[in-house]
Amino acid sequence: MKVGEGLLDLASNAPDRDIVTLSPVATLVVNDDFNPGLVPLFLEASREVMRSGTLLDAAGTFPSAEPRTFELHKDAGHYYAKGLPILQRYLPFRIASLADRYIILLIPLIVVMIPLFKAVGPIYQWRIRARIYRWYKYLREIDRKLHAGSLPDALGSEIERLEKLEDELAAVEVPLSYSNELYELHMHVRYVIERLRELQRRRQP
Q1: What is the C-alpha separation between 99 and 6, in angstroms, rounded?
Q2: Would you say 159 and 197 are in contact if contact means Cβ atoms under 8 Å apart?
Q3: d(CA 124, CA 128)
Q4: What is the average per-residue pLDDT within 77-92?
Q5: Is the keyword Membrane assigned to this protein (predicted)?
Q6: What is the C-alpha to C-alpha distance for residues 50 and 136, in angstroms, rounded to an integer?
Q7: Could you give the number of structural domains in the chain?
Q8: pLDDT value at position 22?
Q9: Closest by alpha carbon to 201, among 160, 155, 139?
Q10: What does the alpha-carbon distance between residue 188 and residue 167 come to, in Å, rounded to a whole number?
Q11: Distance of alpha carbon 29 from alpha carbon 31, whole angstroms
């Protein structure tokens, strides 16, 4: 360590010339029971205290990972390489520490939830379309009877049932992106009604 002339005692000019001497290194040591989460906080506090330096040390010299007297704590190594953990840079220590713990717990949950979220879209589409397509079963039955000529002579009840179906469809609510499918169903119901009415007219004497 270099000690300049008069640095230690300016009044008595001690030392009386620039000298180079040996000096012990102050070392921050913790035992195995020390909370790892406090390591970066402890080092950051040391950095704040030593930010301006001293008469013998330049600003920003300490704390430092070198020279090593003991094995460097892994969290200390991370601090020297990258600084404070991201959360501790913006949040109070207690909140950041809790967040770190919960993030570790949330990772498995997120892994499970991602496939579930991917399945929500298809399930939602199926639910909406099921509300529309369930009416087609009845339309298909009437259409088959029309082709087979097996409809009863009195078609009024079938026409009335389809007209009630139109009223029910008017009360069905679906997202705008599925409105075209609902309107297509309206058109198909009206088409079948017109076919039944045409058949009814032909059957009249």
Answers
A1: 52
A2: yes
A3: 6
A4: 79
A5: yes
A6: 79
A7: 2
A8: 80
A9: 155
A10: 14
A11: 7
